[in-house]
Amino acid sequence: MELSHTDKNGKANMVDVGHKPNQIREASATGFIRLLPQTVKLIRDNQMKKGDVLTIAEIAGIQAAKRTPELIPLCHTLMLTKVDVKATLCENGVEVKSYAKCIGQTGVEMEALTAATVALLTIYDMSKAVDKQMVIERVELIEKTKKDID
Fold it and tell me: Which of 125, 131, 148, 150 is flagged as catalytic?
């Protein structure tokens, strides 16, 4: 099996996607951070010292998606046309869902995963003073699609 991200000597290599056609590329990811009940209540009541946890996490996720190639060495720089991050408070934590879209020659799954992960890390950062038992879990790609431009 030939690996796409290594050269003939086994060294890391950025894949050349120049021959691929531009397509509409979309990806969705999700993740969860488990929190103590009192942390959930503080977030719900907007009583965290650092501010509005859910809104700040959503914005952080969007910013992170735009910076993915700076964080993941072999990712291509993409012209994102849409990034959406939603953080939803649940009984035992926060679920984050992210979506990324571009018109390009390679997919946006890393951007969607980065958005979800950084949103969760932001929640962790904003809650660490009051919750020492937080656990980030189940960060996963939900779907990625590509379709030809009509």
Answer: 125
| pTM summary value | 0.92
CA distance 124 to 132: 10
Question: Domain boundaries in the chain?
Answer: 27-148
27-148: CATH number: 3.30.70.640
Q: Is 150 a catalytic residue?
A: no
Which residues face 87 on adjacent strands? 96
Residue 130: enclosing H or E segment and its boundaries?
none
Alpha-carbon distance of 118 to 105, in angstroms, equals: 25
Residue type, 141: L
- Spatial distance between the Cα atoms of 38 and 79, rounded to a whole number of angstroms: 40
* CA distances, 150 to each of 22, 23, 82 (Å): 11, 9, 19
Angstrom distance (rounded) from CA 4 to CA 42: 46
| pLDDT tens profile 14-33 | 888 888 999 999 999 999 99
Count CB neighbours of 143 within 10 A: 11
Residues 78-98 have a mean pLDDT of 97
Q: Tell me the angle at which helices 109-127 and 37-44 cross, rounded to the nearest 10 degrees.
A: 100
